[in-house]
Design goal:
This protein is of the alpha/beta class and 209 residues long. It has a single domain, classed as Rossmann fold. It is globular and about 40 Å long. The model has no long low-confidence stretch (mean pLDDT 96).
């Protein structure tokens, strides 16, 4: 598995560090963008759930990229509570357009990163995968809510920041959206319990490709 660290620049001039894992096949099925958990609570591109999604993308014949959000890890800039971070994931999409302009994009993320991802719009996005998005962070309707592309939300059964009822109510008027419960885990998805995230990515790829 080939991992390469690259540098991205956002439209507002912030330089970001990012890891790309390249698929072994010459033509990838898709390019998966993965947003990481909240940087003020230790989240960065090395998070175990983020990496599990990247490994699943690689096994499925996809490239993947995960940037450190601004102010985190190897990236410059300052944390902006999810607002300007949308530009960070948009910069990943711009990178994809430069290196693989004909492949679909899957916008994925975990916790904070999933909410940011749901607020990114790009014509190449063929689907969204949101793992443990905190309901409280979605006080406004995300960009993805009205998009026709499939949205798969994974909610831990024992999530400390969301309940099944609150999530189902929140997405009730979203188009093409499915909420799946992750049994026996909480918001932090312990190491070794990431398999369901990988299975969901495989299912989403099957839906859109």
């Amino acid at each position: 598995m080939a991992l390469e660290t690259v540098s991205l620049e956002t439209i507002d001039g912030v330089r970001l560090g990012a890891d790309v894992i390249w698929a072994e096949n010459a033509v990838p099925r898709a390019f998966v963008v993965v947003g990481h958990p909240h940087p003020l609570y230790g989240g960065d591109r090395h998070n175990h759930v983020v990496r599990a999604i990247q490994w699943a993308a690689h096994r499925a014949g996809c490239h993947s990229i995960t940037p450190d959000f601004r102010g985190a890890g190897a990236s410059y800039g300052e944390h902006d509570n999810g607002d300007s971070e949308r530009l960070d994931l948009a910069a990943a999409c711009e990178f994809i357009d430069l290196v693989e302009d004909s492949v679909p994009v899957i916008m994925a993320g975990y916790s904070f990163g999933s909410v940011v991802g749901l607020n990114v719009s790009n014509p190449a996005i063929a689907g969204w995968l949101a793992v443990a998005p905190p309901v409280a962070m979605m006080s406004t309707r995300p960009t993805a809510a009205s998009h026709h592309a499939p949205k798969r939300i994974l909610l831990p059964r024992h999530d400390q920041y969301s309940t099944e009822d609150a999530m189902v109510s929140l997405v009730s008027d979203w188009t093409n959206t499915d909420v799946t419960m992750l049994e026996s885990v909480d918001h932090f998805i312990a190491v070794g319990a990431e398999d369901a995230c990988c299975t969901a990515l495989d299912a989403l790829l099957a839906d859109v490709l």
